Amino acid sequence: AKQAGRNRISFFSAEIEEAIRTRHTLDQKMRQAIELDRFEVFYQPKYDTAIDTIAGVEALVRWRDEDGSLISPAQFIPLAEDNGLIIQIGRFVMRTACLQGVKWHSQGKLLRIAVNVSPIQLMQPNFIEFVRAVIAESGISNHLLELEITESVLAHDTNTILETLNALKREGVSIAIDDFGTGYSSLAYLKRFPIDVLKIDQSFVRDMLVDQLDMSIVEAITMLAKGLGLRLVAEGVETLEQAEALKALGCKIMQGYYYGRPQPAEEMSKLLGVS
Ligand code: C2E
Ligand code: CA
Ligand code: CA
Ligand code: CA
């Protein structure tokens, strides 16, 4: 038994060692990927059904592996948040998206440019200066830049976050709450924080036509947005039926595979008819 116990201990420590090694390897790989410009920004259309046109895009980061395959952000963003590289990656995404936005604007497409911002980025003391610099350097109209944050951020260090969001507001950028309805914070934050947009989480949209509970949640969010005068975006719209149901509830802006997948800038330009 003693022997088995010792084996078990060495087995576990070997496993942990392995995890630490691969973790370290992944960190190194990520650092290298930043240096080698292996990160790319894809764009997913946000379709405004009221005016039948693409009114904006969401910038979504991709990591192009050596073999050409794409590593999804779900796989590396959590790690990048742990090792701090999200700061550099996030800066790259915001710069790239704003420059691309300006290019589209110059081609006559006044799209809103939405960029995801990690809590780690938002809590950086110089985040506002960074955003200000990106706006100045890219020349993007501040009112066309939208930052998507998750509601968990609002439960964190509320005073610092409140100051940051108010400062962003003064810069003229919009704040969207991503994955709305999936977090743990209270609805009171909708009063306290300067929020412009709610994004209905895709999990609710996915099941709204098959699950009355999800339908009720979507209805409630729609009414909430209307009552508070917030813009509303539905995420994960995959079918015409979902789009029709959302429209019937008064939600006008749709994002999802039905309207277009996240795609490289060149593909997006074709979709916009400006390439
Ligand atoms: P998110 O911000 O909620 O982005 C929406 C995700 O849903 C994207 O996954 C998008 O490709 C996917 N999606 C869009 N339409 C549909 C649909 O109709 N059906 C389904 N099933 N999925 C759809 P993606 O690009 O893999 O990104 C995953 C998450 O990674 C994002 O979720 C966001 O939280 C994070 N992320 C992506 N890019 C960035 C970034 O530049 N910075 C930060 N901090 N996070 C990012
Ligand atoms: Ca988002
Ligand atoms: Ca989302
Ligand atoms: Ca999400």
From TrEMBL:
EAL domain mapped to chain residues: 23-275
Top-level taxon in the UniProt lineage: Bacteria
Protein name as annotated: EAL domain-containing protein
Part of the intact protein present: 547 to 821 of 821
